[in-house]
Amino acid sequence: MAALVTDAAPAQSAASAFAERSEANVEQTRAPSSLKMWSAVIGATLGAFMAVLNIQIVNASLADIQGAIGAGTDDGGWISTSYLIAEIVVIPLSGWLAQVFSLRRYLLVNAVLFLVFSVACAFATNLSQMIVLRAVQGFSGGVLIPMAFTIIITLLPKAKQPVGLALFALSATFAPAIGPTIGGYLTETYSWKYIFYVNLVPGALMVALLWFSLDRTPMKLSLLRQGDWAGIVTMAVGLAALQTALEEGNKDDWFGSPFIVRLSVVAAVSLTLFVWIELTATRPLLNLRLLGRRNFGFGILANFLLGVALYGSVFILPVYLSRIQGYNAEQIGFVLAWTGFPQLLLIPLVPRLMRRFDARWVIGTGFALFSASNFMNIYMTADTAADQLFWPNVVRALGQALVFAPLSAVATAGIEKENAGSASALFNMMRNLGGATGIATLQTFLSKREQFHSNILTHHVSLFEEATRARLMDLTRYFLDHGVSDPAVAGHKAAIAVALRVRQQANVMAFGDTFFLLGAALVLALLASLLLRKPNHLDAGGAH
Which of the following CATH numbers is that of domain 33-227: 3.30.930.20, 3.40.630.30, 3.20.20.80, 1.20.1250.20? Predict the structure, then answer.
């Protein structure tokens, strides 16, 4: 505080004394307020980490859960789908509901509910129970993600926001990568139930930190009467229909299914109405006009594509390792660990990089590395396994670690405090929606490309080809030398072996194509990041 410059010495002396007392008072209050502030950030980001982790940790053990509760392969997918639908619906609602019930009450209640229903999922005895319990778990867990982001960009001073966003990056990029590792280990070593019990210890720490750090504020129940209920209903219906269509589309042959067609129509109509309502309402649920701001708009686009590649790569690599290499859940987890553990070392260094270099260059480098890691896998063979995937996974870890915190900082720079809730909801919702879109696209793309390569290979593997006849003769002799006495049976086994080899090769080539698609999506994200404008004050961006 500057002293007033006057000609009167007494006035100057009084001002100086007042400044000294003010600085002393600030010094006395800084430590406890800083402690509470960081406790809130750590507690909230820990909750976000667990909420995201529970998507991948369950997916890694889905087969075991389905067997334990008597669910079929197709219906068992709803164990994950119900969680994802509830999560993506509640994310846009969280900012408004936190105002209605107060941030402290809303966050603590949902944190406790998340833990309660995590344990309850372990006691489900049939598919119906599991779907309902997972939906409630997803609804309460989904609250933790945007609330952590909001706390970072509203409670932390701008100079400290890069550190907060780096912590949040552990939930956004590290949790999806490490989820299969934890899930596979717990399932193979103990039981699938432990993937739900594992939330209890960190969850108790989360609740304690939030209880200590968040200030008590009164509820504003009057906001319920002023709520944008038309927007809430159209948003919830539209997102639920869209998420369900994306999750079930590949299995049901997309628009060949009347169910998927109806869901798509409902999603299109509802979300169109939602956008119109939000742009015309006096008190909108979400301020969609933020998308018109250059950095936030291009940041959202890059974040959506990051979600496509982030969740897409975590989906496609386990499918490859299971289908081609025959790995179990634990083996898959150890392969994917190399996209997770390096991030623990790298993410804490990102705030320092943001201070030394233009954050846009950090973002661009991250997207370039993440893209390159996928391009490294496009020439896979049937022998590509853990050893061959090591360096692509390490490069992927480098890229993921560099992207999220600076992208969040640049995208949210200049967002006013009153718009922080909308910015957090949109930013996190679009990343999750990108993940759902990416997985759905990759599932369909993989099956189509497998059919494409299979048709081409089958055309060349013909009895009119000398190489094919020679291969069949070699295999027939092999089976005759190894216990098959009937030449006809041996010949039949040889034909089956060739067909399986063709199918395996077609699958491997299709997986290479999917990695190329992921790399291309990240190139688009890189281009979007190049259109970001350098903020006047880049301190992780966020609220003023």
Answer: 1.20.1250.20
